[in-house]
């Protein structure tokens, strides 16, 4: 359960000068030394100070994305799916170098030839995650309620298999991570859609070019559960929007789920990448009901770029849910990659300074994208994300059809994720990855702008 200490304002917090705002206050994310703890909810404009000078005191690493020449030596999907003349800004893999503590841990494993079957680590990985959760989200979590497996998709499928009966409806909230549409049938369920609700309210201090935001449509979720759906597959923070759900929204969702006797699987893989002007709230902390009816999925893979190493975690917070996870076949845990567990343990325990540097770089890029679009493609709709390095762009004004990613690839040589794969609500949209260098992001927008200008010229517009 999340803790609230009486001395939150002074206990292990750093004083940070916010020069552009003209005031001084308390702010900051925990450093690698564990010197800080973010507030449970923003208490003043200081918390969302634009420049976040906390790194000057916390020892935040300066993390710079690698350049194309080096990136093209990688053999992962992002760098092998398309020819060299294409800028790949699609799959959720970042261009940042591996965190030094993670690289050191992996090198040490190689040096000792530690490449055999996975064995017991005496709770080291689970404990590392709980320490990370405590520092970043003030989540007082029992390591005994954390169990590893291959990846978040496995957490989702295996959890749903325990929570639903064949044919049961599972609610998702499109536009949403495309595999959700496949993972539910794999688990024996039936997809039930309760699309996010679009809102016209811009967030305070927003520099977004679009005037439309999103939030969970609680009425639609309740209607789906009332009609017979038995579970909700939650994406928190929400991919592809970078939407960070509020505590109030999640608490209201937990009340609805509990009222209908349903359950929740909460995919929280993007949580460590929550930006400094937002507060991630673990679903299992919002109410006693949530703890009783939910299982969360966590991993270091997205934040620390470890997807190929295969390690994720079932996280529970009640005896009921913990018993369900313990009842899974041993093979579910034994499929965890040894290297994935080693890397995840190092990331959670020693990666905070690197992670702060990555988030700072992402925040610079999200603001840069606002500027680039305003200057070069002002008709494109875009709201800056508040988590992760994935952005959701409305290209419908360009006349590039239902799936603009096709035209972007053909005419601009920029590979983006197809909006319609995120659901019908993605028609006319693309997902663009900003976990890259300033040069790559600028070149990508320039290519898209030239393609759009060329299309306009050909049409005589």
Walkthrough of the structure:
The protein is of the alpha/beta class. It folds into three domains: about 15-60, no CATH class; about 70-90 and about 355-460, Aspartate Aminotransferase, domain 1; about 105-350, Aspartate Aminotransferase, domain 2, CATH 3.40.640. About 35% of the residues lie in helices and about 15% in strands. It has helices at about 55-60, 70, 75-80, 100-110, 125-135, 150-165, 180-185, 220-225, 245-260, 290-295, 300-305, 320-325, 330-335, 340-350, 350-375, 405-410, 440-460; strands at about 15-20, 25, 85-90, 145-150, 170, 190-195, 195-200, 215, 230-235, 265, 295-300, 310-315, 380, 390-395, 415, 415-420, 430-435.
């Amino acid at each position: 359960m999340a803790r609230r200490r009486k001395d939150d304002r002074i206990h292990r917090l750093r004083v940070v000068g916010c020069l552009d705002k003209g005031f001084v206050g308390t702010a900051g994310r925990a450093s690698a030394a564990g010197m800080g703890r973010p507030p449970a909810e923003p208490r003043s404009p200081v918390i969302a100070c634009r420049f976040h000078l906390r790194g000057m005191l916390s020892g935040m690493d300066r993390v710079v994305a690698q350049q194309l020449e080096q990136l093209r030596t990688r053999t992962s999907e992002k760098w092998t799916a398309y020819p060299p003349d294409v800028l790949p800004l699609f799959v959720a893999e970042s261009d940042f170098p591996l965190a030094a503590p993670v690289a050191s841990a992996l090198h040490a494993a190689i040096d000792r030839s530690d490449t055999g079957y996975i064995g017991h680590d005496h709770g080291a990985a689970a404990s590392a995650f709980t320490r990370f959760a405590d520092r970043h989200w003030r989540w007082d979590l029992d390591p005994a309620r954390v169990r590893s497996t291959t990846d978040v998709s496995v957490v989702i499928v295996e959890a749903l298999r325990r929570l639903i009966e064949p044919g049961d409806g599972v609610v998702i909230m499109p536009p949403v991570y495309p595999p959700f549409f496949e993972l539910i049938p794999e688990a024996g369920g039936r997809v039930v859609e309760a699309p996010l609700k679009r809102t016209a309210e811009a967030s305070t201090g927003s520099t977004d070019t679009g005037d439309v935001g999103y939030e969970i449509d609680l009425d639609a979720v309740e209607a789906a559960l009332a009609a017979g759906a038995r579970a909700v597959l939650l994406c928190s923070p929400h991919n592809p929007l970078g939407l960070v759900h509020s505590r109030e929204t999640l608490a209201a969702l937990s009340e609805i789920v509990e009222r209908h006797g349903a359950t929740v699987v909460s995919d929280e893989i993007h949580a460590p990448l929550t930006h400094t002007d937002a507060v991630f709230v673990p679903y299992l902390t919002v109410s006693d009901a949530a703890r009783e009816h939910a299982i969360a999925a966590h991993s270091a893979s997205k934040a620390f770029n470890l997807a190929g190493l295969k390690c994720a975690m079932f996280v529970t917070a009640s005896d009921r849910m913990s018993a369900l996870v313990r009842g899974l076949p041993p093979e579910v845990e034994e499929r965890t990659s040894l290297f994935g567990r080693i890397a995840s343990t190092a990331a959670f325990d020693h990666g905070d300074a690197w992670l702060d540097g990555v988030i700072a770089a992402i925040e610079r890029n999200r603001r840069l994208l606002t500027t680039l679009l305003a200057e070069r493609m002002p008709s494109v709709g875009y709201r800056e994300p508040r988590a992760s390095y994935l952005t959701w762009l409305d290209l419908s004004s360009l006349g590039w059809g239902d799936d603009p990613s096709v035209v972007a690839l053909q005419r601009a040589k920029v590979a983006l994720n197809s909006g319609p794969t995120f659901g019908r609500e993605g028609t006319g949209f693309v997902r663009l990855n900003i976990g890259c260098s300033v040069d790559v992001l600028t070149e990508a927008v320039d290519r898209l702008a030239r393609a759009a200008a060329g299309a306009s010229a050909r049409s005589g517009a």
